[in-house]
From TrEMBL:
Gene name per UniProt: rplD
GO terms under biological process: translation
Species this protein is from: Porphyromonas loveana
Pfam family, one: Ribosomal_L4
InterPro entries in UniProt: Ribosomal_uL4, Ribosomal_uL4-like, Ribosomal_uL4_dom_sf
Protein name (record): Large ribosomal subunit protein uL4
Segments passing through the bilayer: none
Subunit structure: Part of the 50S ribosomal subunit.
Cellular-component GO terms for this entry: ribonucleoprotein complex; ribosome
Amino acid sequence: MELSVFNIKGEDTGKKVVLDDSIFAIEPNDHAIYLDVKLYMANQRQGTHKSKERSELSGSTRKLIRQKGGGGARRGDINSPLLNGGARVFGPRPRSYSFKLNKKLKALARRSALSYKARNNEIIVVEDFSFETPKTKAFKAISTALKVGEKKVLYVLPEMDTNVRLSARNLQNTDLILANLLNTYAVLASKNLVLTESSVAVVNELFKA
């Protein structure tokens, strides 16, 4: 698959880049995408939730009523989960929500997400660019020229440029990611994918089947 390369003014430079068909033109696997996104979101959870159980709650351990002869069940201390203000039964405990996915399945999910973007013509390739100083207005002008400024857009860079990062960090609906860290969730969470010319080679090398 070939795509035209645009400059930061949104003009066609006449150059072409080749997107590897084994990455950008496969039959997407929706279940692989689902599992990879589920894993990503699970890894974002802190898992630090905790409620006090009966042995951890402060309160008198005195028996509240006669234990026998009343005709009803025996009643324990004031921390009983059956009483108002008592402890919680089987409350949440700190835990990890992560689970294991095979590397091949993760790779399939990434290729499937990229193939969806390519199929829907939501991938744009732009010449490598940088700024001498951080300039949010200049970065916003690039998105406007590429006609991606109104919806969420993900810029894929070969390596992190401090001035570019600082220029984009205050822009709404604009995210940056390194090509080697590209993941299924980030691709699908953005409407458009803007690849710099150098990042195409990185993606083609890292994610090929």
